[in-house]
Amino acid sequence: MCESGPGSGELVVGVGCRPATAAADILRAVREVVGSKKVRALATIDRRAGEPGISAAAAELGVPVIAFTADELAEVRVPNPAARTSAAVATASVAEAAALLASEKDCGTAFLVTPKTVRGPVTVAAASCRQRMVRSVGL
Asked: CA–CA separation, 123 vs 119, rounded Å?
């Protein structure tokens, strides 16, 4: 999946959404959050992976959908767990956990570039194989 190699800067976008969310809503949320950055995959919980909206959004972006079980996602430490998400799908995170887990499985490392951001019925988070570098003042 990581065609440009680990550390390429391409993003894995984790997506959480309500059932039957339209592809247009998913695409809009992804673009609002990551802008024009290159997306290399959409990652989500297995129960949403086959939904038409997720599949169509991935097809439009030309990327695969990577699915994880609730148990797999629940093992990932995230900065913004949610009790409501846990009650709904048996894991405290979908978007952040899926983005981190997919990036780690692909490249061996994962850094959350964008924490979960809610846009209507869609929650999006982005992870990368490389850490965003912040330049120190005076360098």
From this structure: 6
pLDDT in tens, 53-86: 999 999 999 999 999 999 999 999 999 999 999 9
Return the CA Rg of the chain. 14
List, in sequence order, every residue forming a beta bridge with 78; answer none if it has no partner.
none
Mean of per-residue pLDDT scores for the chain: 88
- Please report the DSSP string for the chain in residue order: --TT-TT---EEEEEEE-TT--HHHHHHHHHHHHTTPPEEEEEEEHHHHTSHHHHHHHHHHT--EEEE-HHHHHTS--SS--HHHHHHHSSS-SHHHHHHHHHHHHHS--EEEEEEEEETTEEEEEEESSPPP-PPTT-
Span 92-116, average pLDDT = 93
Q: Give whole-number Cα distances, 121 to 5, 28, 129, 138, in Å.
A: 33, 11, 27, 43
> Residue 113 has which token pair?
């570039």
